[in-house]
Amino acid sequence: MMFQIWGGFHLPVQVHYAIAWGNINLFDFNNHLQSDKVSLHLWPVPPGLDDLLNPIGVRNLDLILRSNPNKDSPCLELEFTHRNHPVSFPPHDDIVDYGQMVVSQGIDSVPSSRGSSVSPSFSSTPIDIHLDQELLQDIVKRDPLSEISEQEKEFLWRMRQQCLSVPDSLPKLLSAVKWNSKEDVAQMYLLLEEWPAISPESALELLDCTFTDLAVRQFAVQSLEQKLTDDQLSMYLLQLVQVLKFEPYLDNHLARFLLRKALLSQRIGHFFFWHLKSELHQVSIRLRFGLILEAYCRGCGAYLKPLCRQVEALEKLTKLTDSLKTERDDVQLKMLCNHVRQADYLEALQNFPSPLNNSYILGELVVEQCDVKPSKKRPLELTWYNPDPMAECLFKDFKILFKNGDDLRQDMLTLQVIRIMDMIWQSEGLNLRMIPYGCLATGLNVGMIEMVRNSRTVFQIMNQDLRAAIGVRSKELHRWIREKNRNEMYEKAIDAFTKSCAGYCVATFVLGIGDRHPSNIMVTERGQVFHIDFGHFLDHRKKKFGINRERVPFVLTEDFIRVIAKGSDNPTKSKEFHNFMELCGKAYINLHKHANMFITLFVMMLSCGIPELQSLDDVGYLRKTLGVEKTEQEALEYFQQQLNEAHGGAWTTKLDWFFHWVKHRN
């Protein structure tokens, strides 16, 4: 049950606005109906988010099922009818038995049980099995945000037995259930008893706040237990931790499933720990996440000590960066080196597992290579030796950027999705040489980012040359790659550049990543392109004086096309560029086929509170870029138009880059 307190004032038109909100379960964890008096302390409504409130919770807020711990907050005194004996919610088996009785007696055929909204064309037309199956498949294929008409819901309910042969139709069928009808609910429970396990992607959809029924959520978890591999769980763990907020009780099937998996796999447990700990600053979920975190720590055995070492190291770095921000720029580096040489820092900052990847051990801190970056938040560039005996054959050190003051959750989500895109491409035989480097939020505006070895920004490669910045010298990037890769290495570098450029063109277009300037596009010495700093996505582009600075769907400048065309003077007419465009098309179509999964992952993250992911309208941008309502051919033609616009409007990108050069050349 959800409560909202509204205020208002009289102007020429009366205005209403939300003051506070809260919700409470009518049945407690013992399935007993509430009785006697209950004090419900309410939560303030964030400014401008009144319209996001809905009866099943708040998509962009945490689904809070307890009072606000701040006792100074507004409070509702609710008085439920007192009974001498507790009133209990019917056991699951009793509901299923009732469903069997409904089916045997044909109660659901009574018109009043389904309302009067049935369209004659759906109810009276003789059943054509072939057409029904086609319509069913059409509805099932729709993305999670597509609307289903009342007539289509009636059709789905009529076809509920046939839906059993299409397991992934379950989310759509559940939307057709009239949850205020005990006959419908009982029959749905009966169907769930024999429903086959659904795919992990469909199971994830059932764990969003849209589906609040406990039996449905339990079925989703059971499907994950049967179908989800550990690698897939690692890939989706960020979202699964977020949807713990939608569980009505602290002890629930999803929490038990994640705890069990975390305790069985140290790799999963490591990130499970950090995803929980990073949000403990939020008062609304502190109790829930704190209890789960405690349960994990009590069961993880010897790995608790390495986790404590990581926490201690990050606390030291956070304290250090806080003090550095108060010092003059010219003394910050010296202060950093002096601090990390102190005994307590030396002990805390060496020989512990990397939070970014617990299979790597950060050895001795290389003080001489540490630096304070010049950006506003003063991130620390830190280098550790690799103590692995095979380090000479692998890599000798680890470079990590520690940030204190920036919200890394958006970067973390973007990189996770790019990693999933790469997984999809790899499964289709496309190795696009992507570099989804490590990024981990470890607390409130605190986190770590992996620094990619032997790479430079496009801005650095241009050597801050004005002619390169404005496009007069568009061969500068190609010249740099050729200098770094002699003889047979050159062809490999061009191939790596072409494939990675295609991958990031498609990824940045689909995700609507903005603020793409030469300082956040990087190239490795072996030719791989990759993007960094994802502060703007889902088409939240940077503006100057109210004007959108970025006017192309993604960055594809002449510098890049010349590299792809191996320095040709007419690069867009080259065979290499034609092959590049075909590669982009293949990569895009592969994502188009998995559009529903990407939409589900972003919907599951709405409760996270990322500034540019606040509502379904933000997620709706993915529906556009992934062409969810288009056929495969139509989607390919749509992307081809975007590709032509990108390299046709490259001059606008270069103009934006020129102003970036003017601002940052010193």
Automatic annotation (TrEMBL):
Q: Which UniProt keywords apply?
A: Kinase, Transferase
Q: Which GO terms describe its molecular function?
A: 1-phosphatidylinositol-3-kinase activity; 1-phosphatidylinositol-4-phosphate 3-kinase activity
* The keyword NADP belongs to this UniProt entry's keyword annotation: no
Q: Where is the C2 PI3K-type domain?
A: 1-90
Sequence ranges assigned to domain PI3K/PI4K catalytic in this UniProt record: 366-651
Q: Where is the PIK helical domain?
A: 122-299
Protein family membership: Belongs to the PI3/PI4-kinase family.
Full protein name: Phosphatidylinositol 3-kinase
